[in-house]
Amino acid sequence: MSESRQYELVYIVAPETGEQELTDLHAQIEGIVARFEGRIDNTEQWGRRKLAYEIGRHREGIYVLDLMTGPGDMVKEIDRRLKVIDHVIRHMVVRVDEEMRI
């Protein structure tokens, strides 16, 4: 099994997305993390914010930050799945360096 590392996942969801759809999306991410024997350490919903630039027809989005620990394969699967979900406008996964670990 590959080494577990800490990652930050930030994704922006379309502003017209309902609370239930947002909860379902987070449940999908939790399912992927559990399948790869990782864990979500912290989740922060930053709420609805104005985008720096227009993405498609969107000027605002709902920002969510997940801090998670797991193998690289987990991140690849999350990235693959978020690319095909219509509600997700943008997403980014960043490995947190050793010095910055909590």
Give the overall pLDDT as a whole number.
91
Strand order of the largest sheet: 2-3-1-4
The assigned structural class equals alpha+beta
Give the N-terminus to C-terminus distance in angstroms: 24 Å
Uncertain stretches of 5 or more adjacent residues? none
Helix content: 25-40%
Shape: globular
How many strands in all?
A: 4
Can you characterise this structure?
The protein is α+β, with helices and mostly antiparallel strands. It has 2 helices and 4 strands; from the N terminus they run E-H-E-E-H-E. It has helices at residues 19-35, 72-84, and strands at residues 5-13, 39-55, 58-70, 88-95. It has a 4-stranded antiparallel sheet, with helices on one face. Strand 2 and strand 3 form a beta hairpin. It is globular.
Describe the structure concisely for a colleague.
This protein is α+β, with helices and mostly antiparallel strands and 102 residues long.
Labels describing this entry:
102 residues, four-stranded antiparallel sheet, 29% helix, 46% strand, globular
Summarize the topology.
Elements: E1 5-13, H1 19-35, E2 39-55, E3 58-70, H2 72-84, E4 88-95
Antiparallel strand pairs: 1-3, 1-4, 2-3
